Prior knowledge:
Elements: E1 2-7, E2 14-21, E3 24-33, E4 42-46, E5 58-63, E6 69-82, E7 85-97, E8 103-104, H1 106-109, E9 113-117, E10 122-127
Parallel strand pairs: 3-8, 4-7
Antiparallel strand pairs: 1-10, 2-3, 2-6, 4-8, 5-6, 6-7, 9-10
Amino acid sequence: MQTKSISFTNGFSKLDLEISIHKIKKCINNVLIDTGFTNQFFGLKLPLEYAKFAQTLYTGQISLADASIKVIQYTNVIISKLLGCSLSTKLLVWTLFMEGIPIIGTTVLQKGKVCFDGPNSITSIEFEL
């Protein structure tokens, strides 16, 4: 396993991903690491503009933190690079499309090792790279 470190910016950790949405490669920058995004099914949230690249979209509902219900569209994407490094095993991730910034959650993060070092403002991420 290889470890990559990123600095906190204003208290937030963000990373860059390379993904494939049904064979269309996209680089997604400034993806927020959100340990509160704990949905057991979805591991990634992308802005609505990325839904147009999906050949197949499913529709469903999710409960938000405020207990409201939101209708969403979703599909599978493949994460092939993390922080500019190719993953030895590409990650197939159910991804939902919603307004707002891109977010990576615990469904993906638990496949590796993540360490938040608050005093030094550094997040270390260890995946099979």
